[in-house]
Amino acid sequence: MDELRQANGDSGSLDGLRATLLNLDGKTPLANRFRALFHLKSLGSEGNKQAIDIIAEGFKDPSELLKHELAYVLGQTKQLHAINPLVETLKNREQQAMVRHEAAEALGAIGDDSVLSILEDYYKNDPLEVIRQTCELAIERIKWEHSQAKNTEDLETSAFSSIDPAPPLPKDQQQVAKLRALLNNQEEPLFQRYRAMFRLRDIGTLEAVEALASGFDDSSALFRHEIAYVFGQLCDPASVPALIKVLNNEKEESMVRHEAAEALGSIATDEVLPVLSKFAKDNETVVRQSAEVALDMYEFENSDQVDYTLIPTQ
Ligand SMILES: [Fe+2]
Ligand SMILES: [Fe+2]
């Protein structure tokens, strides 16, 4: 603990967090910037607008990985104050696709129906499939959030604190084989298939993990990256071989490989460490940086540090 600065010390003040997040000294390790971000996230979630503004300032950074995480975090705060910077990010074609994707998804997570028309526009007109599909999901999620179904459906209380791109299917849907069939059925709306995905996550048995892994064969990169994300939440060692396979496949989209690296970082079994060390040298920046952050998380999981948001001294 003594090698960590206390949260309310210099690095814990808003100015300190801003300096770390935005790399004002030009030599802040990315892993520390992530830790600062998660601290800002908890402040933002409590309604601290300044924390949200600081996070949004980071969209000027070159790191695709960092920026997509900024967007994710802004969505998770559920604050209406985060809508503007997210809409700007979605609209900005100069931002990388993964960053714009995460911005659209975050708008879905916030769930305010004022953004429906913007999402409709990008759902219909964006040249990139990953953006169109993300907008499709975000639209459906917002509609669901404002629907009768939300109040009448009996959903499993999630073990995960995240706001997901789709709610799980109701509790009475518990046959893994059926859910697996829905997950992989390209004729079904994407939103329904995502609902099956999150239901399988909540079931969480070995059979459910295997069903989820079958989703890595899907033609949509967005879909495959979400499977990797869910595995990162589940932290089941049974998903490790499938995740390593994804990471090893250099033809796989970087967005999917990145998510696999992060998932391996949160699973943090001993077999994972050499894999991550190898990919911390990957040619693809976003994969390399994901492995770097994942290694930091691995060290955290295997240490006696109690709070991930405390920033180690350099
Ligand atoms: Fe994503
Ligand atoms: Fe991601």
Description:
It is found in: Cytoplasm; Nucleus. It holds the Pfam family HEAT_2. The protein has 314 residues and is mainly alpha-helical. It has two domains: 152 residues, Leucine-rich Repeat Variant, CATH 1.25.10.10; 161 residues, Leucine-rich Repeat Variant. The chain is built from 17 helices and no strands. Helix 2 runs antiparallel to helix 3, helix 4 runs parallel beside helix 6 and helix 6 runs parallel beside helix 8. The chain is globular and about 50 Å long. The N terminus is likely disordered.
Query: What's the helix-strand series?
Result: HHHHHHHHHHHHHHHHH
| Bound ligands, each once | fe (ii) ion
| CATH architecture annotation of the largest domain | Alpha Horseshoe
Radius of gyration: 19 Å
Distance from first to last alpha carbon: 14 Å
Q: In CATH, what is the homologous superfamily of the largest domain?
A: Leucine-rich Repeat Variant
Q: Give the overall shape.
A: globular
Provide the domain count.
Answer: 2
Q: Assign the CATH topology of the largest domain.
A: Leucine-rich Repeat Variant
Number of strands: 0
Structural class: mainly alpha
Contiguous runs where pLDDT drops below 50 for at least 5 residues: 1-9
Report the major sheet: none
